[in-house]
Amino acid sequence: MLRSLLSLFLCFSAILPLLNVSSLADVITCSGTVPMRYRNDKISITDFGGVGDGITLNTKAFEEAIYRIQRLRRRGGTLLYIPPGVYLTGSFNLTSRMTLYLARGAVIRATQDTLTWPLIAPLPSYGRGRELPGGRYMSFIHGDGLHDVIITGENGTIDGQGDVWWNMWRQRSLQFTRPNLIEFMNSRNIIISNTIFLNSPFWNIHPVYCSNVVIRYVTILAPVDSPNTDGIDPDSSSNVCIEDSYIATGDDLVAVKSGWDEYGIAYGRPSFDITIRRVTGSSPFAGIAIGSETSGGVENVLAENINLYNMGIGIHLKTNIGRGGIIKNITVSDVYMEHVRKGIKIAGDVGDHPDDKFDPNALPVVKEVTIRNILGVKVLQPGLIQGLKNSPFTDICLSKINLHGVEGPETPWKCSDVSGAALGVSPGPCAELTSTHQTGTCSNSY
Asked: Could you confirm whether 251 is annotated as catalytic?
């Protein structure tokens, strides 16, 4: 694994000139979005009977350590230190004003005893579990209604041991929706950094109904055939920064969401002010995705300096009839992609429905989308933009895009029910976006 990561880092370094990042001094970060707190009070999991032998179950030790942090409320918060070793545990809840710090060589490993896994209510913006009706299994590490929480360290590992869950999904023996690896709900001022996330049962990192979230310097790994193991999914959340990370999973690397059909429309909480930069990864699905659950709306998303390898789709905006919601002011720039099935896809016929109660007249609105400075090598199809007949996608700008295919004739773009402009696009874009001068949609993008 480390050899693969090193190879990708060298590859990433080689293409920095393509991404207009000339030196570390020029690198923009959002580290000031949430301050990194120094905790004067420090405790170790071993103080509460934690044993890092990979066999002893440490659920009680984690619960008691976190209860101590919650009860004493030390000024400035408390750091919970996880020393080197493998700490097997069931799922547990975090508390406010704490840092979970994993030393180098430390592993927090999820038990595979699914019968002991707690159930929690479905998210109100989904109305049911994402996979199955009813409740859902609680995430491995969970937080609800928290503030000032940090997960960091020396690149220790949080291991979800997800293969037992993946097999249950394949065998259709699940009773409820699988657990995420990390989920924060209704929380603010969260930092996740310098940690490896491995083999999540379902989505890896899921901030939902959150604000002020920084996720940086993380590595997220799951097998290419692991089902629905999205990397990072900001969901009905605001002021989220994701940067300087490597993700290789079985589903979308980063997917911005905001609720599902009539439940998301009723809950009405959008995702907005999302920044994604300097993310490298690979997946059979999408690199940067919006949706498909976008019923609360998604606005003001910037994704830049992205490097994608062996992808299904490079950039994917996806929604559906019945979703409602608006997808607006989305900018994706400075992307390098290699060995990709489809470079760019913006479509209104993607994703399933929670039930048959969705409103077929709840049509999504997609507008003000700019995709620029994209270089693709060995891209089988450059792109597809498929709007809705009764809700065409508008103000779509493609600028300075080169998506080179394999040997043989170039595969053309496919478009319908879309308007906008395309400048400097190769192979040539669809007629609906053809423009020979800088006006309107692309006037500030060339």
From this structure: yes
